[in-house]
Design goal:
single chain, Beta Polymerase, domain 2, six-stranded mixed barrel, 14% strand
Length: 472
Amino acid sequence: MAKCGRRPDEPERFRRQGIVSSKQDLIQWENASVETCTILSWLGYGQEIIQARRDAYRESGKLLTAKIRGRSTVIITGSKGEGLSNRYESDLDVLIIHNRVICLEDDVNSSAFPGEITVLRSLSRMSYHGHCGLLLERRGTTILNQVNDAFCDDGYGRERLSSDLFVNNWSNEDLVEGEVRHERAGPSIPNTMDGYLHSDEVHALPYYCPSILSKWASRPRHWPPPEAVQRVVSLGAVLTPVGFKGSEHQHVEWRVCFNAGEMELISNLNATQTKLYVLLKMIKNDVLHPRKKEVSSYTLKNIVLWMAENNPQASFHTKSILQWLHEALDVLRGALITLELPYYMIPERNLIATSGLDEEQQRTWISTITDMLNEGPKMILRLPKIRKALIAHPEPLRWYSGRRIELELLLLMRMNRRVICRDENRKIDFTDAILQALKRRINEVITDVCVRMIMEGSRVINAQAIFHRILM
């Protein structure tokens, strides 16, 4: 399967690709690119707020891991962990890695692992690329009930761990106060806390797979730098409980994932590459409108990672973002035509193989993307957030952006402080001085916004409505 993204040579790459046709055309693209990057920063996608989100959610994972005394490792993944969405913009993706189990590749010796650890051996020969089965090699002296109760006979007298039973076992756990659990979605268990905080929990098992990671690390590349490659390798992999769609062994198959490594990769993208990813996500949500994740943010992330690997870093800069957006959309269109897009970590796995894309939707999306490519830099006007920001007066937009970013930072601090102030029964000590100070400042910021909106003639004067509107 071919790699995504071309390797254009400086400085005429976009002209040779037909993206720009003249010097005046190039200036138009560059001016629109600079303006788009500025607007994205005002909208909450500048490097400082992105890094603040990443730091806060990394700290949140550490605090939650400490609360359960290290029996499992909690990582906030997805757009929250990547720093690319604010508090209420998307669901919270929580990965819980259970450390009392280790899954091993074929040639890895299990004798080095202590006796309390349950050892499972991966069986990948009969599974699609990036998936495997798990056979019990050694039952640990302490084993989770959710794991122990998920074994089934493989037909040859061996115990095989069922991904389906594993998810169901976790779905049947007792609810905490204020929690509502929803119907499982693949490997994830969606739930809502207090009526408005939505999260998707995925329970996973650590997977030691040096051969897969060394194959990825040895690829020739422009990016990421060698030290980042080594960090990705050191972060390892996990197995999530979901099989290859349509496989006869789907209920007992597991998918190889590199959540922590991929977050490290995203953090190594430069500002332009990060904003390119944000623009692609906006196009997915506001232009393509997938019904069942036929094209997901994960699909788009892989396109950006391939483009970063295959092209010099210096070619991704503020003046070139819309040209790269044009190229990324061209890659996406090609993937929709061929129904092939290689997974960045394991290229043999086709991310669109089980997308469920029907012919009518395929034709519509190909046509829509083709129209966007023909529109040149004006394609950015299809995105409501960008379009509204372009017609807004810069001063109010900057003022509003500053208040929104401050409010989000306060909420991130409050989020982690609440974990610190929570006892073993999940009761929060709201008398804590820091929580009280954060609450006062949050109310002050919302009041400032309310007053300004009233002065400008807005009808929206409900503080709670403004609070949620700011953070959407």
